[in-house]
Amino acid sequence: MSDFDSSPFADTEFSNPFQDPSVTQVTQAAPPGLEEYNPFTDGKMTPTAMAARAAAPTLNTQPAIMKPTEEPPAYSQSQAQDLLRRQDELERKAAELDRREREMQSLSASGGRKNNWPPLPERFPVGPCFYHDITVDIPVEFQKTVKLMYYLWMFHTGTLMVNLLGCLAWFCVDAGRGVDFGLSILWLLLFTPCSFVCWYRPLYGAFRSDSSFRFFVFFFVYICQFGVYVLQSIGIAGWGASGWISALTALNKSIPVGIIMILIAALFTSLAVMSLVMFKKVHSLYRTTDASFEKAQQEFATGVLSNKTVQTATTTVASRAAEGAFKDQV
After folding, report:
1. How far is 255 from 243, CA to CA, in rounded Å?
2. pLDDT of residue 114
3. pLDDT at residue 139, as a whole number
4. Which residues pair with 100 in a beta bridge?
5. Under a CB-based contact definition with an 8 Å cutoff, are residues 73 and 52 in contact?
6. From CA 273, how far away is CA 276, in angstroms rounded?
């Protein structure tokens, strides 16, 4: 009868898979609290489940960040300074381009350049002779130097005016100083325009167009101007300058006049010192540009050959020489 109760399809070697030792080991090692969990309850967990949940390790929800295998190279102090210097150069070039663009726009709007220096009244019979605008013509990095040279020229002109008054006061207390008074008038009328044309305008043009030839003209003339300042500060009697020698001589005639001339001698001395300082400053800026003696020679040769007056004179001389040679042959 037992043979009929057993299933004919049953495998006698078949065993319950849930009785496998590996499965039973996992089920026995399951964390406590799972058996007490009922999904159909109100969501409250038993104390055992709550303790098991509290003991479970927390997962790190931070995103994974890959760390570089090599750190970026650190810039040295010299490299950082070089980068800053290049950035400053780019900013200056950008400012220069912007200034040039504004200049072209202003020129196109006004119909071209018009002379504006010296600033004379409109009804004056003589008009301005030069166009002078430092903010438009001169690059940004050289504007401060050109302005200082312009102020130095104005100080030079004012000193010559005061020198005329000092020589006039000396002539009033000493009738034999008429030559000094006359020469002081001559120096004022001569040195004021000549200094502007001979050394300030070449400097202005040199920085405006980076002209090597104008730089050398300025250096040559300004060295002579420095020598004149030294002589005027010395104040040799009969030379029309209220220098130290003339001031000490005037003290024997009149103390107030002598004090005035001492102050003028101090002005001439300060002019000499400032001119020397500015000469060194301009020379240091000249060395930073592309100017050179070879370029000055090329500019001079090009300017001479392209000058219409020189071309006309050369053509006239050549034609006359050819005519003379032809007549000699005939």
Report:
1. 15
2. 82
3. 87
4. none
5. no
6. 5
Residue 72 pLDDT grade (very low, low, confident, very high; cuts 50, 70, 90): low
Q: How far apart are CA 294 and CA 212, in angstroms?
A: 8
> What are the structure tokens assigned to 23, written together?
């499965």
Which DSSP helix (H) or strand (E) runs through 33?
Answer: none
DSSP string, 86-136: HHHHHHHHHHHHHHHHHHHHHHHHHTS----BS---TTSSS---B---HHH
Six token digits for residue 80:
């950082």
Q: What is the pLDDT of residue 62?
A: 59
Whether cis (ω within 30° of 0) applies to the bond prior to 118 is yes
Most confident of 259-273, 287-301, 310-324: 259-273
C-alpha to C-alpha distance for 68 and 259, rounded to whole angstroms:
79
Q: CB-based burial of residue 61 (10 Å sphere; 0-12 exposed, 13-18 middle, 19+ buried)?
A: exposed
**C-beta of residue 195 within 8 angstroms of C-beta of residue 168:** no
**Each residue's pLDDT tens digit, 32-58:** 555 555 555 554 555 555 555 555 455
Of 198, 91, 191, 106, nearest to 139 by C-alpha is 91
Q: What is the mean pLDDT of residues 163-192?
A: 94
Residues 6 or more apart whose CB falls under 8 angstroms from that of 120 comprise 126, 127, 128
Using DSSP's 3-state secondary structure scheme, residue 64 falls into coil
DSSP 261-329: HHHHHHHHHHHHHHHHHHHHHHHHHHHHSS--HHHHHHHHHHHHHH-HHHHHHHHHHHHHHHHHHHHHH
Residue 187 and residue 181: Cα distance in Å, rounded?
A: 10
